[in-house]
Amino acid sequence: MTKTFAQLGFPGRLIAVEGLDGSGKSTQIYLLKRWLELQGLKVFFSEWNSSQLVKSATSKGKKQALLTPTTFSLIHATDFADRYERQLVPLVRAGYVVLCDRYVFTAFARDTVRGCPPEWVRKLYGFAAHPDLTFFFKAHLEISLQRILVGRPELKFFEAGMDLKLSTDPEESFRIFQGRLLEQYLAMSTEFNFHMVDANQSIEVQQSLVREVVASRIHLGSYVDTGLTTQL
Q1: Which string of DSSP letters, residue by residue, matches 121-186?
Q2: How confident is the model over 163-182, as pLDDT tens digits?
């Protein structure tokens, strides 16, 4: 059984947020980051698919439709492994509170829905410790869809699952694809001890709940910045 960073004896802690596209999880983790920083804590933020090592390859693969489900999975695993080795582990070891906008559970859900064997995907990420706390923001599909479309004119190709040819209509494809992802997340929720948050509530109500849970689960006084900096 994979252990959390705390169970492995690391001085820092890692908190992850998961949720469907449009669930509002990115807003919540940003607000959490600001709250922790204002209390003087050593905080680092990392988001899914952001490694400079593979960024250009990922972008090229998506634009030219070169990615099969397997290569899609492998390139995201490479991205995660690079950030895990260069950022996440060193900073948790240095006593930081590391906040991750998506973690391995995103791969477990997306890659499985795209047709990769679940056991294979899990073994691919078998090197990674589990978060000390994982929030899952659960929002109604229609609310998630409308939140996305308020911010921009159209859905992105892959967030709508258009590569799976579920529907020629992007919005309908989004509903089908994200609905399947939700099924995967809910199936994992008990196994990985997700803390479920009703993401249909207001931003303020959700953030209040998140802060309350973090304060009760993480001993925040242990991670106050002493003025030291970590070079990555």
Answers
A1: HHHHTTTPPBPSEEEEEE--HHHHHHHHHHHSSS--TTTTTGGGTS-SSHHHHHHHHHHHHHHHHH
A2: 999 999 999 999 999 999 99
